Each structure stands twice: as structure tokens, then as C-alpha cells.
DNA sequence: ATAGTTTCTGAACGTCGTTTAAAAACAGTG
DNA sequence: CACTGTTTTTAAACGACGTTCAGAAACTAT
């Protein structure tokens, strides 16, 4: 009693999200257009709007996938002593983000997409912060490890942010990776040498 | 032997730049459109294109002004001991950038405007880095003050970057100002306590 | 007056996100 | 079989964007 749907909506969603990610990766946020996206999946833009509402929703779904991958990557880090583990995390984070720098811009650039961040958004971030805080607490039980974790994350973010938009060379000839390692070293130095 | 120009080009330029800054301030990069800009100064967009070439050039001129103001603000900081001076610089920088967060996005967001940065661009940044390095060298003559200055700037930039696009609350409940102070404290702690 | 020259405008081009009227494709009913 | 009802999908449209450019406008020199 109705026109049958031509596409499996579940399949369509994953295809759209995958195509969106490819476009982001290759050309940054500017390349994620409704027309390019619909052409890439062989559907008209109207169909995508029927499924996602608008383009920001597509970007949000890409970000959800990215955050899931980030969580997985962190889980997969080899168990190690606090210090080497922290370095591995910093290095992994930088490499993860810069190998997805188009996606990164979708995550951190432009006006905020939503008034309040989705739960999975905050959970991923806080999971990451907790993973940073734990080794810091082991290294220096006296400090406020959560506060230090926030500060360390922000410091690393600074380097990644500049690198992701091609502006790190404005400030330094070193790579974001090296700067992240230095940030870890500085933090460890500061908290471990307090009598 | 020619149509006389209706506008003083020098005046026109400063008016366009001022209007562009207002638009940026009030609505971020998205609000800086050729039509809004030309309406604001009472000129058609063609005239602006004749003077500036394209909108990126207008943005670049706004940035030049911003950088000049930044330099002036730094020069105006009261002379002080290395440590308090560093704190004052960090605080001043954060306040400067966040009170211009629309302009900030034009400075640091989006794909790079030019292949190579203009000279005044690099001079301002390097001037700032040198101003950071000097007190660091006084505090700990043994360290590579220039390298530490880059790292400290990047760390502060991380907080400002998140705050400027309304995403700092994703990571921390503290302000960019507080995080910047902590970054300074961490750096001083790390370099001053090396035997 | 007329011709020459430069300045400025306004309309146009193609692209963007998004909306929507209509076409398409079926199941149920007579 | 035709017709109706319902839902899905399309294609064209809308307004706004950056940018370009033919030509109107406004003067000087002859």
C-alpha cells in the first residue's frame, strides 16, 4: 500500500557516513557538500536529507565513528609502566588525529554543531582524560591528577590543532609528535620533582 | 581625462577593514561576506574586489591589524621580574585573543590562506616567542629557552583554541586563563628544578 | 560637442545547503 | 483490470555565497 523503499536504510546510513569520511579526509570540511556526498553514494541529496535531516548530522555521525576508533586505539595500547605508557598515548593520539586531519577539522573547527554535546562525545573525552590521569597519579600521588590530565591534554591539543590546519610551522620547526612528547616530559618533570 | 574616483582609496581600505573586523567579531568567519561587507561600507562588492582582489585579502589585512595590536599590547606590559612577567604575558595573550574570538577564528581556522606566510606574520610570532624565551632563560639558564618558549606557546594556544570555538567545556571546567597560568607554572616547575 | 579614459555598478555565473511539488512504485479494493 | 491510497525518491527550485565583467557614469582634453 506504499512505494517500496529502494535502499536499505541501515546500509544507506553506513555508506553515507563512509563516503562523508572519505570526502572529509580528502578535502577537509569544505569538500563535504550535499551534492558530492549524494553523487558518491548514488542517491539524490533529498534522500540523504530524509535520513539525516541536515549535513551537520552527517558530520556528527562521522565524529561518532571517529571517537569509537579513538577509544579502540587507546584500548589497544600495550600495557606498560606509567611513563612509557603516557608517551605511547601521546604519540598515538597525535598520529591518530593527524592521519585524519580532515575529520579533525570537522570535530574541532567551526561554530559548535550542537548546544549540548552528545553523551558519547563527553564519554570519549572523559575516558581519554581518565587514561591520562591514571599514570600521572602513579608517577606523583600528591598532585591533582585529573587537573594535570586536562592541562596535558590541552597542551597536546595545541600542537595537533596547529598541525591539523597547516599552521604549526608558524610557530615551530618541530613536529606535533615531538612537541607532544615534550609536553609529556614537561608535565612529568613538573609533578615528579616536587618534594 | 578619466572618471574621478568617488572614494579615497586609503580611507576606503581602512573602512573596509574596520567593517570586516566588526562582522568577524559579531558573527565569526561565516558573517564576513562580500555582500554584508559592501553594504556596511556603502559600496558595491565590485569596488571592494577592485581594491582587495578577494575576501581572503581582506581577512589578511584584518589579521595584520590584529597582530599589530598584539605587539603593542605586549610592549605595554609593565616591566617586572621574569616569573610575574610571564604570567602577565600569558594572561594578556589569552584575554587579547578571546576578546577577539571571531577574529581569532579568521587567524587560525580553515585552510591556510597563503602558501607562505607574510613577513609581518612571522615577525609577530617570532617576536612573541622571543618575549617568552627571555624570561625562561633568566629562570633557567641551562635550558634551551627557545624550544621551551615554543612549547609553552603551543600549550597556551591549545586552551585558547578550544575556548575560541566554544569547546573548552568539552575538556575542562576551568577557564583558558586558568589553564594558561597552569601551563606557565608547569613549565617553570619543570625547568627550574633540574639540578 | 566629441572622444578618450578610468571608476563604479548591477546583473550575471556557478556552487552551496535545504525545501518541496510532483513523479514513481507498490498494495489493497472494486 | 482499473482505480485509490500511501510512501519513497527525484528533480527542480530558492535564497545566499564568492567572484567576474559588460557597460553605465563621470570626468578631461581636444
Descriptive account of the structure:
The structure is a homodimer of 195-residue chains. Chain A has 195 residues and is mainly alpha-helical. Chain A folds into 2 domains: 1-53, Arc Repressor Mutant, subunit A (Orthogonal Bundle), CATH 1.10.10; 61-192, Tetracycline Repressor, domain 2 (Orthogonal Bundle), CATH 1.10.357.10. Helix content of chain A is 71%, strand content 0%. Chain A is built from 9 helices and no strands. Chain A has helices at residues 9-27, 34-41, 45-52, 55-75, 82-98, 101-108, 119-139, 145-164, 176-192. In chain A, α1 packs across α6 and α5 packs antiparallel against α9. The longest helix of chain A is centred in the middle third of the chain and has 21 residues, at 55-75. Chain A is elongated, with a radius of gyration of 20 Å. In chain A, 37% of the residues are buried. The structure holds a DNA duplex (30 and 30 nucleotides).
Key descriptive features of the protein:
0% strand; Arc Repressor Mutant, subunit A; DNA-binding; 195 residues; homodimer; mainly alpha
Amino acid at each position: 500500500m506504499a512505494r517500496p523503499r529502494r535502499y536499505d536504510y541501515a546500509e544507506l546510513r553506513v555508506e553515507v557516513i563512509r563516503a562523508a569520511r572519505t570526502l572529509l579526509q580528502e578535502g577537509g570540511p569544505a569538500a563535504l557538500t550535499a551534492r558530492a556526498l549524494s553523487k558518491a553514494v548514488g542517491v539524490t541529496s533529498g534522500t540523504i536529507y530524509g535520513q539525516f535531516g541536515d549535513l551537520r548530522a552527517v558530520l556528527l555521525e562521522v565524529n561518532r565513528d571517529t571517537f569509537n576508533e579513538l577509544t579502540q586505539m587507546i584500548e589497544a595500547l600495550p600495557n606498560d609502566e606509567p611513563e612509557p605508557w603516557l608517551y605511547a598515548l601521546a604519540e598515538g593520539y597525535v598520529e591518530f588525529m593527524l592521519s585524519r586531519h580532515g575529520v579533525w577539522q570537522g570535530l574541532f573547527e567551526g561554530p559548535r554543531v550542537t548546544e549540548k554535546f552528545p553523551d558519547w562525545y563527553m564519554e570519549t573525552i572523559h575516558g581519554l582524560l581518565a587514561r591520562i590521569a591514571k599514570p600521572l597519579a602513579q608517577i606523583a600521588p600528591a598532585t591533582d591528577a585529573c587537573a594535570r590530565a586536562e592541562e596535558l591534554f590541552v597542551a597536546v591539543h595545541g600542537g595537533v590543532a596547529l598541525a591539523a590546519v597547516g599552521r604549526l610551522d608558524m610557530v615551530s620547526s618541530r613536529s606535533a609528535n615531538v612537541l607532544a612528547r615534550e609536553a609529556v616530559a614537561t608535565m612529568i618533570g613538573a609533578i615528579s620533582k616536587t618534594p
